[in-house]
């Protein structure tokens, strides 16, 4: 790695992570021109160089506020791949982006999560536009899948399932936006193969397995069901259903069903996942036959086919008769309970008046006697009485008097 090149990338990373918006904007513009000049001179970026650049770009997005400016910044970051000199540099730049997102994913708070999800979406959009300019070359598509198999479509725990889930959720939308008119059915099948392979891998987590099923294959079925109904959710409610899918990505539903069936019948496939795959295969076969795979309608012949109208009428009469009997039983039970309460009250009255004319009354509890606390003896001495005032002296004098 060139020493000057490495030093320049460190400076760019510091400027991109600056707290001043003006400094970040100037650094991003200079980075675009610097990448273009370096690529034209034949200089190449190593993996460490790209990781340093994405570290600075990550914090540049981290510091950016205001939604419209965030969208513009995400577009400018994603378009950096157009300034790289070779295809290998494009895939290296993409791989280091996924690695950076995996490293920093758990440190993103809920207030900044949306703009990083938008950044991932814009990079996928830019990649598909780049492939479309090269007419979806099979070699380039294969190299892109190798990058994905090492990062966002792998069982590697270093890339969180949240990053993988969001990649799966935006994949079909951005593919439809970029290649709806330029992709044929065989190319579409090729673009779906990495998701089929991740379903076949036994090490895939349950969360990621369910995410691929729902966000990729069930989404295809929902899209076919909506298009088959003629767009019932559109604003023009008077439009008649066409009975055929609208313009968009053309899927080979029979081929998709066969791919999923092949991985479902494998010996290493778990039984619960095999059951889930077979259910999806059945729906894709319905789509291949032109039927609505998401329809919940049932054939009337399969419902109550062995029951005639007379049996239904008899069952209805029995149900009504049983309902009337239940109401009668409830009324009788209420009357018996009311009569028993009246008898109990009469018996209580007779028991209370047997000892006298007045009914027996409950003895009131005697009031509680509160004892006064003894006062402490006073320290003052009582005055001494004289002999004339002493009651003992007076009693003796009365006894000695003659009668």
Quick overview of this protein structure:
The protein has helices at 3-16, 21-40, 47-63, 67-78, 87-104, 113-133, 138-150, 161-179, 185-200, 206-228, 253-264, 271-288, 309-352, 391-400. The chain is mainly α and 403 residues long.
Helical coverage, percent range? 55-70%
Largest sheet: none
Radius of gyration: 45 Å
Strand tally is: 0
Secondary-structure element string: HHHHHHHHHHHHHH
Average pLDDT rating: 82
Count of helices? 14
Structural class: mainly alpha
Low-confidence blocks of residues: 232-246, 354-364
Q: Quick one: overall form?
A: flat
Q: Could you give the distance between the termini?
A: 147 Å
Beta-strand fraction estimate: under 5%
Subcellular location: Nucleus
Biased composition (Basic residues): 362-384, 393-403
Keywords: Nucleus, rRNA processing
GO biological process, one term: rRNA processing
Describe this structure as you would to a colleague.
This protein is 64% helix and 0% strand. α5 packs parallel to α7 (138-150) and α10 (206-228) runs parallel beside α12. It has helices at residues 3-16, 21-40, 47-63, 67-78, 87-104, 113-133, 138-150, 161-179, 185-200, 206-228, 253-264, 271-288, 309-352, 391-400. It starts with a helix and ends with a helix. The chain is an all-alpha fold and 403 residues long.
Strand and helix map with partners:
Blueprint lengths: L2 H14 L4 H20 L6 H17 L3 H12 L8 H18 L8 H21 L4 H13 L10 H19 L5 H16 L5 H23 L24 H12 L6 H18 L20 H44 L38 H10 L3
């Amino acid at each position: 790695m060139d020493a000057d090149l490495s030093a320049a990338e460190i400076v760019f990373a510091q400027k991109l992570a600056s707290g001043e918006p003006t400094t970040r904007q100037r650094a991003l513009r200079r980075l675009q021109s610097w990448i273009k000049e370096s690529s034209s001179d034949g200089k190449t970026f190593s993996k460490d160089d790209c990781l340093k650049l994405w570290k600075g770009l990550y914090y540049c997005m981290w510091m950016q506020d205001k939604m419209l400016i965030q969208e513009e910044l995400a577009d400018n970051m994603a378009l950096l791949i157009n300034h790289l000199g070779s295809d290998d540099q494009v895939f290296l730049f993409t791989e280091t982006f996924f690695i950076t997102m995996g490293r920093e994913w758990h440190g993103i708070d809920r207030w900044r999560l949306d703009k990083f999800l938008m950044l991932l979406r814009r990079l996928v959009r830019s990649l598909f536009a780049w492939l479309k300019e090269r007419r979806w070359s099979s070699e380039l598509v294969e190299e892109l899948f190798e990058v994905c198999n090492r990062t966002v479509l792998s069982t590697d725990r270093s890339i969180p399932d949240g990053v993988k889930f969001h990649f799966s959720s935006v994949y079909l939308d951005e593919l439809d936006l970029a290649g709806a008119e330029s992709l044929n059915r065989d190319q579409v099948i090729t673009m779906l193969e990495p998701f089929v392979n991740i379903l076949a891998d036994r090490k895939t987590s349950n969360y990621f397995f369910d995410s691929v099923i729902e966000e990729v294959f069930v989404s295809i079925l929902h899209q076919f069901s909506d298009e088959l109904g003629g767009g019932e959710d559109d604003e023009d409610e008077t439009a008649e259903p066409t009975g055929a899918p609208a313009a968009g990505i053309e899927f080979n539903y029979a081929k998709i069903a066969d791919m999923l069936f092949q991985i479902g019948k494998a010996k290493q496939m778990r039984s619960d996942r095999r059951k889930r795959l077979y259910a999806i295969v059945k729906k894709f076969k319905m789509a291949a036959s032109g039927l609505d795979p998401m329809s919940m309608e049932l054939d009337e012949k399969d419902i109550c086919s062995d029951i005639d109208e007379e049996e239904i009428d008899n069952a209805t009469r029995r149900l009504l008769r049983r309902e009337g009997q239940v109401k009668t039983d409830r009324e009788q039970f209420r009357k018996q309970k009311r009569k028993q309460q009246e008898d109990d009250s009469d018996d209580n009255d007779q028991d209370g008046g047997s000892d006298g004319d007045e009914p027996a009354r409950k003895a009131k509890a005697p009031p509680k006697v509160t004892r006064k606390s003894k006062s402490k003896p006073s320290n003052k001495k009582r005055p001494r009485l004289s002999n004339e005032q002493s009651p003992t002296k007076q009693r003796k004098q009365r006894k000695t008097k003659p009668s």
